[in-house]
């Protein structure tokens, strides 16, 4: 301990966990982490097949955003002390297989997969936003901002898929 009694341990920027609805927050963060992990694996599978094609840079751009989402949920799991789902090994394999399998169908197949997955995820985020708004929008302000931003990113990916022949 240095002079003055201050600790060498850095201060935590942890959010206040008092008054937080633990079951709701645990569920939201665990599910979102698993979803972003799965999305990362889907894009990894698509890149393994289509990475050097004309659509590769577009897939990489969306994957980079998903990597940022996963990084943030990894941080939130520590802050809120949430355990990851026990299904991560399943998401690891299933996500990659879904991504590679859809990409084997070509650009349209990959984009159709993107549209379906991103639509489902953005709907899921909307449901979580409603839940947190009903709980206490001020208490969950930071988490709401994160989820809203990620929802908007997922909608963008959805729309990119539609623009690139997903419906074909």
From TrEMBL:
One of its GO terms (molecular function) is 3-demethoxyubiquinol 3-hydroxylase activity. One of its GO terms (cellular component) is mitochondrial inner membrane. InterPro entries: Ferritin-like_SF (IPR009078), Ubq_synth_Coq7 (IPR011566). Pathway: Cofactor biosynthesis; ubiquinone biosynthesis. One of its GO terms (biological process) is ubiquinone biosynthetic process. It comes from the Eukaryota. It holds the Pfam family COQ7. The keyword Metal-binding applies. Keywords: Iron, Membrane, Metal-binding, Monooxygenase, Oxidoreductase, Ubiquinone biosynthesis. This is COQ7 protein. It comes from Chionis minor. The gene is Coq7.
């Amino acid at each position: 301990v240095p002079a003055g009694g201050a600790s060498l341990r850095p201060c935590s920027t942890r959010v206040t966990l008092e008054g937080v609805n633990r079951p709701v927050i645990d569920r939201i963060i665990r599910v979102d982490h698993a979803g972003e992990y799965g999305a990362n694996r889907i894009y990894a599978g698509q890149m393994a097949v289509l990475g050097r094609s004309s659509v590769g840079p577009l897939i990489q751009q969306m994957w980079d955003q998903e990597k940022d989402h996963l990084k943030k949920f990894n941080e939130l799991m520590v802050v809120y002390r949430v355990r990851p789902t026990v299904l991560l090994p399943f998401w690891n394999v299933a996500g990659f297989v879904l991504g590679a399998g859809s990409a084997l169908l070509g650009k349209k197949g990959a984009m159709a997969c993107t549209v379906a997955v991103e639509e489902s995820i953005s709907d899921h985020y909307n449901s979580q936003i409603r839940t947190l708004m009903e709980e206490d929008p001020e208490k969950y302000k930071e988490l709401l901002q994160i989820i809203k931003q990620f929802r908007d990113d997922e909608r963008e990916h959805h729309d990119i898929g539609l623009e690139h022949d997903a419906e074909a």
